Amino acid sequence: MRDWKGIIFDLDGVLLSTDHFHYLAWKALADRLGIPFDEKKNDLLRGVSRMDSLEIILGERSDEFSPEEKLAFATEKNLTYRSYLQTLTPEFVSPEVPETLQKLRDSGLRLAVGSSSKNTPLILEKTDLRKYFDAVSDGNNITKSKPDPEVFLKAAQFIGLDPSECVVVEDADSGIEAAKRGGFYAISIGDSVTNGLDDRHINSLVELL
Ligand code: B16
Ligand code: MG
């Protein structure tokens, strides 16, 4: 690898996966509204903001609801999702994740989180992962969601580096596109990235070492 100075990690799908919690929370809402929703559709929501996810779920029925109703739906989903997040513990994270983060830090790299999720602070606290990062950029400090590069550009700014000096690790097409649009080297992980925009693919974070 080139002489990188920093690594920006997407949270959900990279450092841990709360996919199933998202699924259960959206499913409860979709069932109540009589809208079909399954795990395959849930996969389309990776890295997508909460309100954009809601629009994907409502689909053709989007026009039936007012902006106020949509906000209430998103809040309802988030309350269910957060009740699942309360069950998170450090053991929920694969042991190789903190081990790898510590080794990367020890090698002098600056580390940041770049996540669309407004629940990032809660997730990092419950899993005890916050201490590995020099900075966190998340859904609370951005106005434009992935595939806009804002969340990663802010992360790079927070750790005092230029995008050309940083790697982004992502599990979703929207995040890989955001990284490339921001001028970052983009590494995909898992099997959900299919847009072919990634510079490199890994199967485990250990490969970053
Ligand atoms: P919230 P990431 C993303 O996290 C999730 O992949 C996506 O499913 C979710 O809709 C989005 O965060 C917003 O999350 O409702 O908690 O603000 O992959 O960017 O870390
Ligand atoms: Mg993700």
Description:
- Helix 1 packs across helix 4 (67-85).
- This protein has 209 residues and is an alpha/beta fold.
- Strand 2 (110-114), helix 6 and strand 3 form a beta-alpha-beta unit.
- It has eight helices and six strands, in the order βαααααβαβαβαββ.
- The chain has helices at residues 19-33, 39-43, 50-58, 67-85, 96-106, 120-127, 150-158, 173-181, and strands spanning 6-9, 110-114, 135-137, 166-170, 185-189, 200-202.
- The chain has two domains: 6-16 and 94-208, 3-Layer(aba) Sandwich (Rossmann fold), CATH 3.40.50.1000; 19-85, DNA polymerase, domain 1.
- The protein has a six-stranded parallel β-sheet with strand order 3-2-1-4-5-6, with helices on both faces.
- Residues 10, 12-14, 46-47, 171-172, 175 line the site of magnesium ion (MG).
- 1,6-di-O-phosphono-beta-D-glucopyranose is lined by residues 10-13, 22, 45-50, 53, 78, 115-119, 139, 172.
